[in-house]
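for the record, two folds in this file. i put them one after another cuz i was lazy. first one right below, seq on top, structure tokens after. the second one comes after a little note so u can tell where it starts
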Amino acid sequence: MLRPGFARLFLTIALLLSLSIAGLVAVVLHWSENWTLDQIDREIAAEVSDLSAFYEQRRMLGLKELVEERSAWRPAIGAVYLLAYRKSGDRLGGNVPRWPAEAILDKPFTFALAGDYDDAAPAQIRARAVVLNNVFTLLVGRSLEPRMALVRDFQKLLPFLAAAIGALGLIGIFLISRMMLTRMETINATARAVESGEIKARAPGADRDDEIGDLARNVNRMLDRIEVLLDATRASTDRIAHELRTPMTRLRAHLQQAAQAVSGDAREKLEDALDETRKLSASFNALLDISRIEANAPGTATLPDVDLREIVAEVAEFYEPAAEERGIVIDVRAPEKLVVRGDRVLLQRLVANLVDNALKFSPDGGKIALGMECEGGRFLFRVSDEGPGISPDFAAVAFERFSRAPDSQQKDGFGLGLAIVHAIAQRHGFTVAFEPGDKGASLVVSGPMAG
């Protein structure tokens, strides 16, 4: 099946080639007739010159004998001659019965010569007439039929030749275009492989000295640079985690010891400070998690198959006690099996963050719906609550880091939960977005199923 880009390219080249061939055919058709007439005129002019020179040497009697002689043996090649008096037009010799009315002196002209039989079509004669010694006129001509018949045969054959050449040209263009686009497709396949997680994949054909080879080399250099940057990002993230987690842990330990050593207001303030350090550590860990997830190339080619239905059921069971305390019902609706490629731990965190977020904003006695659907090799996982919902303005920035809805400032959190969901979804090649609704918020995760 032709891709639209290739089809447009092929059709454009085919149109240009067809127009070029059509123009060339028109030029050749016109040129072939003119060239044939020009060749006949040259041949006639040369013979007129020879006969005129012969007249200067042998005068009229010699010329008359020569004209009669040529008239007798040259009809086979369509040659015609007429020697006549200039003033009276009386014929002296030749095989033309009378002086043609179309005759023009010293210029080529065409006239019709009647055939030997009454029912024969007149022959078209190309001729030239000159004056000899201001007394005689000499006409030399050639029949156009033999050569023009060849021209007409060539003109009839030319469109078929042009069509054959055009067909061969189109086949050649098709094959060359397919070859070039096949090489381009290998570069696209490399890009898709990198997108799916194969960061070490490289475009083939970089050793070829042409434009597509240059493109492959540039893509490979870019991928080498990206790999270096990703490695540097991972190394920096690990170093930050190593350098800062230990001081944070030490700070919490000191605060815990200080809180145990005092009482009253001082103890209460130290416990508040300890709680803030726990939140700060949680926020810091969340940022590190996002960085680690984003550092991994998106895609699922290297990930195992997992049952998303089981993950959703496990998360729902985990949050069931907290929901029951507030009279909230968690309703799970799923097919018997929904297998995707993914990291089980990350997918558990994605589902948990969504359920935790829905539980946080659901009113007491409300309902949280966890629905899953499968269609056309893709799945939809929808989390809906009966909370206040979200505004379109916030939906546009909800997945950014530290993004919090205006009515959620009094609730715990740093606005990183949905950022983690978005990073995990991208890691797996999934999409995540809010779905408009009349009541509450509805968030949908969609992506390809395994197999």
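(here's the note) second protein begins now
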Amino acid sequence: MSTLAKPVFLLTVAEILFNVSGYVIHAVSGRVLGPADYGRYGLVITLTTTLIILIGNGIPTAMSRYLSEHFEGSPTSVRAIQKTAALLQAALITVVTGVFFLLAPFTALMLGDPALKPLLRLSSLIIPAFAASSIYFYHFTGIHRFDIQAVLKMTRSILRIAITVPLIISFKLPGAIAGYIIVPFLTFLLGLFFDWKTSAAFRSNRKEETPLTFPFRTLLVASWPITLFLLFYEIFISIDLYLVQVMLEDDRQTGLYNAALNLARLPYFLFYALSIVLLPALAKLKSEGNPEKVSALMSQALRYSGIILLPLAILLSAAAHPALTLFFGNQYSEAADTFRVLVFGLSLLTVFYTLSSGLIGLGHSRLPLRIALLGTLLNATLNGILIPRFGIVGSAWAVTISSFIVTVSTFFLMQRFVKTPFHTKKVSVFMLLCFLLFLSTLPFSFDTFSSFFVAAGLGGFFLLLLFSARILTEEDIALLSSLLRRKKGSSKENTKAPSLDINEDSRP
């Protein structure tokens, strides 16, 4: 069994728990706040999240890459890399948080809603809280302590529900924003504790060695394309929400679109763990000079992404009405048509993000940066054309069309750096089975909660077809069984660099 699969499985469980808590927050917010205030909530949180991507993930992601390359061969350099990243992060936090706070009145005016001004100023505190917690999240990624990473994620999930839900019920919209400040700060304190507990391995013989330093310039050069990629990616998946608000000038329509958008992000959240582990794993393999294993790992990541995401999107699209009603209430059922389109666009973007994470891990971050920039411009242009004619459904189509173009472009352009064989016959069979799955959903109305059982039954039958067509094999069953089997071992086992045991014939 691949040891890479174990951290992916562990982080996937943590990610599922994290996103269940997120959907609880959104469900409570949507019901308590109503469409208008829920639309404001989405605008404020999405705007703040974009800035968090700018300062919260770029430098830590670059730090994670360097930690993954050095933590075994030169363990004492870990502290130097972390210190350099923390200082750069702190500088950016101070500047961006101050600018965001001062520009709150102008931002509210641009969005055409003066009521956003105090909310934007309060939300400025989200930026330092998230940025601080991200340092430890990516630190433990870089040193391959995925077990601690999962604990941090699970703890944050519990705190989101325990703290944020009562704040929403008690203080409405300001309480929802306050929860986004308090929870990541508490997670940061827990990360600080784990860092102290695990620091001994990176401080051995400290008295006998000259303290190492890590150059600021090296980290900056590596982090700026990653930062810009993450920024443009976040704008890519968020700009439609702002254009809906600006062009339609209807808080209710913005709230409906925000509900469809958040529910359609479910596939991305499920596969986020894969992108987290993929980056340091590929960086490690590259530093060891294993091009064959790099190609095998990327191929396997794409294989599982396709096998899971497309049928999941088909079933979610079919069950759009009961899914929106379950999470947000009957008043959001009007967003069903928008969701049916968006779920395919966000699934495609999930594949794009996975490919981009692999390219960043291999040191080719400028390619996904350029594609994300062009994709953002294309998405904005299509939104400008389609929203006036088709409303929020037009925005959903703009996202889906641009997502398809950037994902396909990335796949073919990345072949220059890493070969991922395209098995035409198996891919064609898989696409045919997905089309048959889509046709099988048409006779059902999918209007009630019992529709979820119908979707589950169709999904189970689809899996049987995948096995009969040899798209899924016994190796996949063995991998899943070994993941679910309770294993005993020391924590040291979880810190090993990911290895591979990939059957090349099992790839479609």
